[in-house]
Amino acid sequence: MNIIYRRASRVLTYTGPATKNSNQALDFIKELGEQIRTWEGKRADMTFPPTNDSRWTALCEFFERPWPSRLWIAQETLLSRSVPILLCGRREVCWYMVLELVLLAHDGYFPFVIRHSDTDSASSLLWLGELRLAACKTVVRRNISLTQLLRACRAQQCTKTMA
Fold first, then answer.
1. How many CB atoms lie within 10 A of CB 160?
2. 2: phi > 0 → left, psi -120 to 50 → alpha, else beta; which?
3. What is the pTM of this model?
4. Which of 67, 97, 82, 78 has its CA nearest to residue 144?
5. Position 139 pLDDT exceeds 50
6. What is the pLDDT of residue 142?
7. Burial, 72: exposed, middle or buried (Cβ in 10 Å; 0-12, 13-18, 19+)?
8. Residues contacting residue 161 through CB under 8 Å, at least 6 positions apart
9. Domain named Heterokaryon incompatibility: which ranges (predicted)?
10. pLDDT for 38-52, tens place per residue?
């Protein structure tokens, strides 16, 4: 798989079929991503929609999908030479936009978007992002010990869970 992902000109990560709120979530991710780019690192100037905005609900539902906990997502994210693109139904969004939102939520800007546990999808996204940054040899947000890495990957699934 390493060779396939490294040689691919583009890697698409399929997050599942479109749902009632998925288009709204992807539009919101793109909107917030554009806002983040204009802030130029001035986090104190950031403002967000109120917590009762329906777009937050759509975003939370997108983050709660099972795709971040799938092991092949880690392969796609870590091994691709290009920036992975998330595909939901027929809509696309840049993986780094999603990562930036998860990192901001983790940093407390909108903590209601993610839960802090080893098994929820948004936490899996956070770990994937930090691993991707480390793989790209860019600045890593925090040191990741082998124990933490194993603990984070323990929750990754190789097959669809049975209900």
1. 8
2. alpha
3. 0.75
4. 78
5. no
6. 47
7. middle
8. 66
9. 1-76
10. 776 666 667 888 889
Closest CA to 32 of 71, 5, 63: 63
Query: Residues near 136 by Cβ (< 8 Å), separated by ≥ 6?
Result: none
* Tokens describing residue 6: 């490294």
Residues 6 or more apart from 130 whose CB is under 8 A from it? 140, 141, 142, 144
Structure tokens at 104: 């901001």
The closest of 122, 142, 129, 136 to 95, measured between CA atoms, is: 129
Residue 13 has a CB neighbour count (10 Å cut-off) of 22
Phi, psi for 6 (deg, rounded to 5): -70, -30
